[in-house]
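so my prof wants the structure for this chain in the tokens format not the other one, which i didnt know existed until like an hour ago. anyway here's the sequence
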Amino acid sequence: MVGGCVRDILLGKHPKDFDVTTNATPEQIKGLFRNCRLIGRRFRLAHIVYGREVIEVATFRGHHQEESEEDNEQESNLSKQSDHGQLLRDNVFGSIEEDAQRRDFTINAMYYNIADFSITDFAGGMAAIKAKEIALIGDPALRYREDPVRMLRAVRFAVKLNMRISDKSAKPILELAPLLANIPAARLFEEILKLLLSGQGLETFRLLCQYHLFEPLFPLLAPMLKDQQSREVRFVEQVLINTDNRINTGQRVTPAFIFAAFLWYPLEERVQQLMVEGGLTHFDAFNLAMNDVLQKQIQRIMIPKRFTIPIREIWQLQTRMSKRFGRRAYQMLEHPKFRAAYDFLLVRSEVEGGQLLELAEWWTEFQEADEDARKTMLLTLRNTESGAGAPSRNRRYRGKKKV
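here's what i got, hopefully its the right format
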């Protein structure tokens, strides 16, 4: 066994999964187990299936080599890099010593041998654990170029394990952070979930900003976060605080809420821009702005449609929640995304205050009220015309009907 499972056991944590590695090639593993299937092109792996359990087995990786005619005949055993130095394929097999040098962090390069119950540490992982330090194996700049996602992993491990990123490993991050723009958007979506839905999202967010890693992930929001006292920063941090609390108390969370929050103020900015420059109504500008903002964001992080739909609903309900007359308030309560939209409104009201706070308090009271109290609230609202969307008393004169 190798990697995170060995690390977590040494730290007294319960491993999430167990990684197995061997000197046998994927094809040799498949020959030994009928219930084995080979997966991956970038990293060739063997999945051995036992009922509902899947054991993932990797072959020891070796050092990179230049392509030759012989290599071209066996493409699955090649290491290929992009112009930026990013590894596109890594199927050069080698020894356990070489495999250790190919791993990312020292704390992930310890091997547990089940034959004699020994731990082999080639890269100083034990010392790093004692020093509470996240350190890359080899030249950090080169390793980040091979896979820029390692910068995100460094942040994630630092927060998760309550460690610090070593000075040597931290130094190149500011310069190389833009390389994240070269990572497939679908892969970054999975990484974002690991980063922000870990129960430590607030601390992770702050560390991402510290190392300028947030900007290539959310380029529309990042420019708004320069002032630490701004409403945008306070809003994002409050959303992450609430999300962390829900995760740590076993409550359900959805990525849609996080993305809706991160893109809310870029959405508002785009709406105003379209209204001024295009002369559009707020309704038309809002609908067009939703498309624009989501389209730009998914170029960096591929948000699946199953999340973009509820993101839109949460946004749309923010505008509809101020229109409370007649049956609208009751219809709003019946909307499938009302609760998420209401929670979203609560955070906005905490940050912005003013009329938004009054609106949030009204919806809180309306939900808890009985039917008679609700009717009274709606009647009071109509009489005072304090809610947006009140029907106009000024009727247009149509003139007498001609006979």
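also thought this was worth mentioning. The chain has three domains: 1-63+87-131, 138-217, 266-384.
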